Amino acid sequence: MSQLKQISHNDNSAPSTPGKFKMEKSPYFNRTRWHYSLAKLTLWSFAFLVVILIFFLRSPTSSVPIDPSRRSLRTYNWGGSAWEKRVRSSARVRSRNGMTVLVTGAAGFVGTHVSSALKRRGDGVLGVDNFNDYYEISLKRARQALLERTGVYIVEGDINDEALLRKLFEVVPFTHVMHLAAQAGVRYAMQNPGSYVHSNIAGFVNLLEVCKSVNPQPAIVWASSSSVYGLNTKVPFSERDRTDQPASLYAATKKAGEEIAHTYNHIYGLSLTGLRFFTVYGPWGRPDMAYFFFTKDILKGKPIPVFEAANHGTVARDFTYIDDIVRGCLGALDTAEKSTGSGGKKKGPAQLRVFNLGNTSPVPVTELVSILERLLKVKAKRNIMKLPRNGDVQFTHANISYAKRELGYKPTTDLQTGLKKFVRWYLNYYSGGKKAVE
Ligand SMILES: NC(=O)c1ccc[n+]([C@@H]2O[C@H](COP(=O)([O-])OP(=O)(O)OC[C@H]3O[C@@H](n4cnc5c(N)ncnc54)[C@H](O)[C@@H]3O)[C@@H](O)[C@H]2O)c1
Ligand SMILES: *[C@@H]1O[C@H](CO)[C@@H](O)[C@H](O)[C@H]1NC(C)=O
């Protein structure tokens, strides 16, 4: 703008040039004026274009796609004494020998359940979540409201924000980190590969960098995934089986996470436990997962894609109910040993673990659909399709004997029972609370 003013000022001042030079100089002045007008026109057109562009980028109904990696450039409000007070109060321990846990991805499906379970038993809990729009933000907000009622505050921010994480550790000396923030989903990786690198790799490294440098270092439990088994065909999947054939970028970033965890444990003495979750489902679940959108589409009378493998082979999943997963997470936190480093340096060997958390009873996807039909009392329109080769594997089945031995992990909910609870929640949630819970 100041440039614009300057030019118009120069332009106005041109005719006031002393008259005696006018004859000789006039062609020069005309050219200058022409030049100035052109510059003015160009600038105004440019300003106009900028305004149009800003309008389109900000408009919610915009058809101009916003680069999702730009999400990281969003600025969040944090800091100040009222904010610090809120953070401290959320993280206050209320039971004897309770821990202070920073839960990343707290507005997510698993994060919400783990946070509320920790809070209920008297641990101090603080959440962090960037509330990204990978799936309906309103569901994340509803989970946040649920946690707020139990006294858990979720700080809105990105795990890539080093200053924010440092500040949080400055305000609260967390004893544990439950790291669940991630870009989940297998197929979305073809659409937005950058978001997987941003959250699952860069974000994880940033978190570990902060954890290794604070004093005392926290112990870290984090979510890996059963997808690391990839093209492995030996069942059940045991922790020692090969995991070097990922079938999706999502799986590859989780596998990378396991290797990164090894590095930070080795160099800095961070206590690290990775949990390979097997298809977690339940109330407050993720809308991008099959059991969730099958429910939605069956109710709408919309056909659902039911995958089968080559030669009409069965596609099956080791579905694991959320409460069982939560018990596994708490078991991992409770058995996590202290990190050994200080001042950013390793002082001795630290704990490094990886566990399967599954249900150890795979169910064919066709059976999942049948259970949903019975619960919803609606017949599904099944669209039988061949399993595409874009990330999903044919079969998952967890060997959970290691988690059983070390964490006392023992899943107790079968798919029928768990889906009944999911469907009850779903109907209640999407009727806007109008429909009473049976
Ligand atoms: N649900 C499953 O079946 C399953 C299976 C295997 C592994 N996992 C893993 O478990 C964890 C939790 O999964 P979920 O099902 O609750 O997923 P979710 O998407 O519901 O939760 C993840 C949360 O993390 C947040 N998040 C993402 N990137 C972030 C960032 N850069 N900074 C801050 N917050 C960020 C999201 O907003 C979201 O609320 C993830 O690590 C996921 O990969 C889940
Ligand atoms: C399950 O894993 C344990 C190691 O934790 C192993 O000893 C056992 O042989 C595995 N079982 C099967 C059936 O693969």
UniProtKB/TrEMBL annotation:
Location(s), subcellular: Golgi apparatus, Golgi stack membrane
Ranges of residues in domain NAD-dependent epimerase/dehydratase: 101-338
Database matches in Gene3D superfamilies: NAD(P)-binding Rossmann-like Domain
Domain of life where this protein originates: Eukaryota
Name of protein: UDP-glucuronate 4-epimerase
Membrane topology type: Multi-pass membrane protein
Entry annotated with the keyword Transmembrane: yes
Biased composition (Polar residues): 1-16
Reactions that this protein is recorded to catalyse: UDP-alpha-D-glucuronate = UDP-alpha-D-galacturonate
Subunit structure: Homodimer.
Residues passing through the membrane, by range: 38-57
A matching Pfam family: Epimerase
A GO cellular component entry from the record: Golgi cisterna membrane
